[in-house]
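Input structure tokens:
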């Protein structure tokens, strides 16, 4: 129990040597079990990342399509005016925040 307390508190040289020696002895026994688990976890992470990227790309594309349809419906001139007004308001808000 004292060894665990030393490790959690940051330990000392003896604790570090004990943990290192245990790792050298135990690693060859544990490696055949840990390696497949690590590979599976890495594969799962890669698949999750790939699917999240696809989902993000699809969402961005969908939002772009919606914006394009909205601009086509209201007309490009009106859309440009709305963008300019929104930009002016955003600049005013940032300037007000900077003054505070």
């Amino acid at each position: 129990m004292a060894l665990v307390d030393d490790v959690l508190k940051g330990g000392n040289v003896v604790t570090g040597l004990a943990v290192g020696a245990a790792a050298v002895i135990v690693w060859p026994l544990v490696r055949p079990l840990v390696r497949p688990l690590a590979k599976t976890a890495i594969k799962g992470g890669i698949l999750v990342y790939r699917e999240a990227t696809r989902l993000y790309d699809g969402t961005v594309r969908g939002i772009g399509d919606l914006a394009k349809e909205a601009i086509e419906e209201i007309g490009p001139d009106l859309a440009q005016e709305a963008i300019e007004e929104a930009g002016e308001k955003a600049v005013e808000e940032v300037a007000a925040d900077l003054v505070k």
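The chain is about 95% helix and 0% strand. The mean pLDDT is 82.
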